[in-house]
Amino acid sequence: MNEHPLPVPPDGLALTVVVPCLNEADNIPDTYREIADALGDQADLEILFVDDGSTDETLARIRVIAESDDRVSFLSFSRNFGVEAAFSAGYRYARNPWVLHLDADLQFPPAEAKLLIERAADGYDAVFGIRVDRKDPWPRRTASIVHDWLARRLLGIEIPPRATTFRLVRTEIARRIVDLRLGTPYFLATLPRLTRAWTTVPTAHRPRAHGSSKVTVRGLARHSLDLFFGFSSRPISAAVWAGLIGLPVALLAGFTGSTALFGLALAAALFGLALVARTLLHISRGQARPPLFLVREANVPVDSMDLLAGRIS
Fold first, then answer.
1. From residue 238, how far is each of 156, 189, 205 by CA, in Å?
2. Is residue 223 situated within a structural domain?
3. Which segments constitute the Glycosyltransferase 2-like domain (predicted)?
4. Which one in 39, 45, 101, 272 has a CA-CA gap of 20 to 30 Å to 203?
5. What sign does the CA torsion over 248, 252, 254, 258 have?
6. What is the DSSP string of 99-127?
7. Domain for residue 210, yes or no?
8. Chain-centre distance of CA 132, in angstroms?
9. Which DSSP state fits 304?
10. Where are the alpha helices (DSSP H) in 170-233?
11. What is the rounded CA–CA span in Å between residue 246 and residue 242?
């Protein structure tokens, strides 16, 4: 946690609540009601749903709500682009000076946002929620602990400890991060590179009421590798040392006939090469790439570069 916020007053409490959704039809009505009940007293509240290419009734239910409440906006992608794309679109098109990221699974009660808002008033640019008594299966809780330790302790990456996607951020800073168009987009690791005025707040957590989690083992692994290789130079340094030490020792062992030593040294060298290859893969993602997302339907103005075929259906 950063204990020294910049002495800058907040821009006000005008909020855009960004709600990424993928096949969350059963949760949409409750998500809307809880946000409206908990945050309806905030100035110029906007609830911005971002449909990440859902194949169920998610978009249809958002449309119905938007027709009856002009505080509700939505963007719907032409296909599934992923969670980073979904919240990035929300940050880009938020109309208010602060964005509150709230997932549609409602595991973070919207009423807990008041804790983040109160902390932001101290002059912070970003406030991250920390789950108290986390209501997820133990494998996910354990994986998060290991992931946090590897990132912060072993690899020296500056990320808010135990921070989550439940966060309140100045919109102009969130947009700046989106516009960086990083090959390895990882919001939690990018924000500390732009500002030191961030902090964390303990918040309640609850089980998912409807639907199933969209988080997969493969997705978590890819997300972790994006962080480890995209924001730390230590893996490539380890690869270099493994190669520098392993190859000469392997050659020496080959001359002396030490099979075991040769095998260990060769394994170290191959490990180093694998790390180099993985790092190069992540570097390549920083080059020119397809659009982060494309919007097929929306009830807000959308830049032509983010539209599918330059039009909204």
1. 14, 21, 38
2. no
3. 16-176
4. 45
5. negative
6. EEE--TT--S-GGGHHHHHHHHTTT-SEE
7. yes
8. 19
9. G
10. 171-179, 187-194, 217-230
11. 5
Nearest partner of 265 among 249, 276, 254, judged by Cα: 249
Judgement on whether residues 46 and 85 belong to the same structural domain of the protein: yes
Residue 10 maps to a domain: no
Residues 144, 214: Cα–Cα separation, whole Å: 16
- Interatomic CA distance for residues 255 and 249, integer angstroms: 10
How far does CA 294 lie from the centroid of its chain?
18
Q: Is 138 exposed, middle or buried (0-12, 13-18, 19+ CB in 10 A)?
A: exposed
Question: Same domain, yes or no, for 186 and 271?
Answer: no
pLDDT mean by block of 10 residues, the chain; 313 residues: 46 84 95 95 92 96 97 97 92 96 93 94 93 74 74 77 91 92 77 93 84 62 68 68 62 60 63 66 60 93 87 65
Assign 3-class secondary structure to 235-267.
Answer: HHHHHHHHHHHHHHHHHHHHHHCCHHHHHHHHH
Domain region containing 89: 15-214+290-310
CATH of the domain at 91: 3.90.550.10
Number of independent structural domains in the chain: 2
Alpha carbon 147 to chain centroid, angstroms: 14
